[in-house]
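Lab notebook, bench 4. Still working through the backlog of constructs that have no structural model yet. Next entry is a single chain of 154 residues. Request: give me the structure tokens for it.
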Amino acid sequence: MQALQNTKVSYSNKADHQYDQKGTERSVLLIEADQSLRTLLCRVLQENGYLVHEASQRQEALAELHREHPDLVLLGSSRAVPSDFELYQELRCHTQAPIIMSSTWPQREHTRYIEPNTNDTYIPMPFRAQQLMDCISLVLQATTSNALQLLPHN
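Model written out:
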């Protein structure tokens, strides 16, 4: 969190919002139990042009997922790896959106849970705001590329 607090993120106006190929604003479901970290991440995401939906716990996250159909899910850690894995698996059953997991636990503890053949990934904490934005951009680009490859060719 310290790295994020010390990182300046330029404010982006309406013209700089992130849009998908249909012209719809890109959205992120941010699931984070820690209120101060959730607020900080929400601000960083919004300042980088994303529409953000927030959740602090499982039930709230699933409700937002079904209501908003986000382009990406950012799953923070509850500091309990089995609990994180269970929520990840539940989210994976309910959405095709890529999931980025993040925590202070060692990467090997989280990456072993990530489903194969998805664009899901893990970003260890602490991270800089730009690292998160780069990760989100790469995941969304890969997801768009995969979707385009699945389209029938005329």
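Notes after review: Residues 1-15, 148-154 have pLDDT under 50 and may be disordered. Strands lie at 27-31, 51-55, 72-75, 99-103, 121-124. Flag for follow-up if needed.
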